[in-house]
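Exercise 7. Given the components listed, write out the predicted structure of the assembled complex. Treat all entries as one system.
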Amino acid sequence: GAVVSQHPSWVICKSGTSVKIECRSLDFQATTMFWYRQFPKQSLMLMATSNEGSKATYEQGVEKDKFLINHASLTLSTLTVTSAHPEDSSFYICSARGFGGSYNEQFFGPGTRLTVL
Amino acid sequence: GQQLNQSPQSMFIQEGEDVSMNCTSSSIFNTWLWYKQDPGEGPVLLIALYKAGELTSNGRLTAQFGITRKDSFLNISASIPSDVGIYFCAGQNAGNNRKLIWGLGTSLAVNP
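Answer.
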């Protein structure tokens, strides 16, 4: 149980284009989803938290107009990196948390490697 | 943002050796979590601790929630090559969407 998937697993795009990353909870309903980015040899940095049906809460320093988050259902959240630039290249990881029992902690997706040329 | 002090930063050990790593915080937490991350993958939850003083095992892994609620340690006994990876601690409190506060990670290398 508690499987979280991400798509795509990797993406290469040109500077100025937008990229959408999907995060799905496959076997449980995720009331809350989190989006992180991770640079090489560093820890995870929380970008934003989204509750189903509500606007995402962004961490300080994260541009909400650049990193658009949609959490339209209990099993799907999307992160869109708009007008991507090389400095946005990173490893993006989502996590999902359900309610009650063994789904009460965060379970992580496998990550999406974004490279902006 | 806030990060936890995790040590050691890296370890290189021989297969079969025991490993110990710890995490400290200036503030208290209600929950301590330990994750392992393999290269190019997301973190996987190893052990969750919910009560001060709690000692919990998961196979060869043992973790404890410090009595002051400001620290936790993780032990790995009889290490094997597949233990290689980066281990992260994380603290969590109720409220604020219960977001995780992360340690900086301990990179473990095991020499067969």
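Discussion: Chain A touches chain B through 27 residues (CB under 8 Å). Chain A has no helices and eleven strands.
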